[in-house]
Backbone:
């Protein structure tokens, strides 16, 4: 092999190596982007302060967590909370519309740009549900009342 062919082979090997390394960075960047904008919503009792906890919320932009319940064909807004650029944090959402208790509720995370400015408590969120970055449903119940006990008589 002459020097030109050897130089071309070395250059091609370096180019292949750099392409593989660059592809690894691109894939890991995609994985990081996919890990953002998510939440976990577990079955729970409504807290004494009238809130539910949406756990492990991650957002990569100004965002809002919306909690809804289903009424017929509508997803009725029960509560909202800000969730701007969070990294695996819990968000407490005050439930201001108790029409869905006890029952299944859904927590949604939205990019603020995808929510109408006038979306409020009691409104139907169904038209914007498709823009949610993530959502999860859970049973939300009233806390159990202390049971009355009577001593043996």
Residues:
């Amino acid at each position: 092999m002459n020097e030109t062919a050897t130089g071309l082979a070395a250059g091609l090997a370096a180019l292949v190596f750099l392409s593989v390394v660059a592809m690894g960075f691109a894939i890991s960047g995609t994985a990081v982007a996919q890990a953002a904008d998510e939440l976990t919503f577990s079955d729970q009792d409504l807290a004494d302060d009238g809130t539910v906890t949406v756990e492990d919320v991650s957002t990569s932009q100004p965002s809002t967590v919306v909690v809804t319940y289903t009424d017929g064909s509508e997803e009725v807004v029960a509560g909202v909370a800000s969730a701007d650029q969070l990294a695996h944090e819990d968000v407490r959402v005050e439930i201001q519309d108790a029409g869905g208790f006890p029952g299944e509720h859904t927590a949604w995370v939205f990019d603020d740009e995808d929510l109408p400015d006038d979306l409020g408590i009691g409104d139907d969120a169904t038209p914007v549900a498709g823009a949610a970055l993530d959502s999860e449903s859970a049973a939300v119940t009233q806390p159990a009342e202390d049971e009355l006990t009577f001593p043996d008589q």
